[in-house]
Amino acid sequence: DVNTTRYHVVTAERLLKTDLQAGGYKQTMLGFSFQLRIFPLDGKLFVNNVQVNSSNMVSGNGVIHGLSQVLSIVRNRCDETKYSKFRGSCVDCMFSRNKLCPNDTKSVRMKKCLFSHIFESERLLTIGCRTTCLRKNLVHRCCPGFFGEHCEPCPGPSGQPCYGNGVCVDGTNGTGLCQCHKGFNGTACETCQGGKYGVHCDQDCSCKNGRCRTVSPATGPAIVTSAGEESPVRKRSTHWTTCVAPSDVTPVPTASPWRQGSDASAPLAS
């Protein structure tokens, strides 16, 4: 699809791998609201948590970088346009209407008024015109599930902040921390609190001759927090539980294994 292709293209910059390793956010052809997050981790390079597996393929119009899978379109900025009105000065109606309001504003209404001016050394009151001006203001806002100055994703999988097991403190002034619901714990509310287990982390562990231990079926890519720390995040918030028991007791998991589907490769161009 055309939008997916445009999301893989960074305009106005010719970026080599050394440029990408500096990290940051790059605007795509879809516009300012659709930015790519580029960051290095453990000697590897990632774009929106997708690994770059080949780089610096120079073409006539730019540089192509290969990705391990196609990027899902993510809108991280939801800027809001607001308008404010204010009254201009009372001036001679002979002035061009386009000059009655300051630059970057426009005139939306005009009324008669009185203004004073000097004519042959005398101050006179004259009927003039006063316009109402309209100014367009862009209010920077993050989309739900994103936080901070650059609208970084909250912990958890794409489209499911905090795995749906908590509330992310999002927004431009947000911290990106997950406030977990009762029974859940972890950076992304991906685990149960001590002594709890189950899909909803609402079942009590009842090991008679040992202690309860939660087992994660899979671990996903790391999330880098705003402080630059790495936090492991699960691919699915299903929580197994086993009892750490004597050697003659066989623990039984309470959930079935789960495996994520295969990936497809995709290029990133700049």
Keywords for this structure?
270 residues; mainly beta; FAS1 domain; 3 domains; three-stranded antiparallel sheet; 2 helices
Describe this structure as you would to a colleague.
The chain is mainly beta and 270 residues long. The protein folds into 3 domains: 2-67, FAS1 domain, CATH 2.30.180.10; 80-139; 142-219, no CATH class. It is built from 2 helices and 21 strands. Strands 1-2-3-4-5-21 form a 6-stranded antiparallel β-sheet, with no helix packed on it. β3 (44-47) and β4 (50-58) form a beta hairpin. It starts with a helix and ends with a strand. The model is unreliable at 216-238 and 245-263 (pLDDT under 50).
Number of H- or I-type helical stretches:
2
What's the N-to-C terminus distance? 18 Å
Order of helices and strands: HHEEEEEEEEEEEEEEEEEEEEE
**Percentage of residues in helical conformation:** under 10%
Unreliable segments of 5+ consecutive residues: 216-238, 245-263
Give the overall pLDDT as a whole number.
Answer: 79
Query: So what's the overall shape?
Result: elongated
Oligomerization status of the protein chains: single chain
Q: What is the percentage of strand-forming residues?
A: 35-45%
Class of secondary structure makeup: mainly beta
